[in-house]
Amino acid sequence: MSWEDYLARGEYGEYIDGSFYPRMVTGEHQDVVQALYVLLAGTGHRVFATWGWRPTSARRKHEPDLMVIDREHAGRVDRRSQYWDGPVALLVEVLSPSNESKDWVRNMRDYAALGCPEYWIVSPWGRAVHVFGLVDGAYELDEVITGVRELPRWGLAVDTDVLL
Asked: Which parts of the chain span the membrane according to its record (predicted)?
């Protein structure tokens, strides 16, 4: 499938290597995404849920559960577009049984290659937030949050008992 064919579908989902992957989530998954959205929206950055990210150089479009765009780029956001093509500050994926390996392997590899500086993988059943930082083109685990943890770089506290 070509990029143009994908856009003509008008459906939400990811476009990876010429294939369309529809979005499949549960209510539990959406509850966690919503709680994280509220938390991150308080940072003053632009936060988008399930909106596409396709950097100009990429031949694929991902739909992370949450995408955080720095304040300095917020004015470039075209809300009529199906995706954001600029830099991101943070991408967040909430695990579901159907997507766990995709988030741990493919998305981690792709997001690092595309230069996203920080990536969170949230495990509802593990009751943890795994925070990764980009180092020399690959992600390194910075910390695993269980309980309450202050994240000064974001100006917020993550409380897994509240989020999960």
From this structure: none
3 state SS of 159: strand
Sign of CA dihedral 5, 89, 112, 121: negative
The residue assigned the tokens 């770089």 is 153
Q: How many domains does the chain have?
A: 1
Low-confidence ranges of the chain (pLDDT < 50): none
Token duo for residue 85: 């093509």
Q: Tell me, what's the pLDDT at 134?
A: 98
Can you give the residue range of the structural domain that contains 70? 25-163
Q: Domain holding 78: CATH number?
A: 3.90.1570.10
In a domain, 39, yes or no: yes
In this structure, are residues 48 and 67 in contact, taking their beta carbons and an 8 Å threshold?
yes
What token pair was written down for 61?
């479009």
Query: What's the rounded Cα separation, in Å, for the pair 128 and 132?
Result: 13
Whether 92 and 120 have beta carbons less than 8 Å apart is answered as yes
Give domain status of residue 32, yes or no.
yes
pTM (predicted TM-score): 0.89
The two tokens of residue 55 are 């950097």
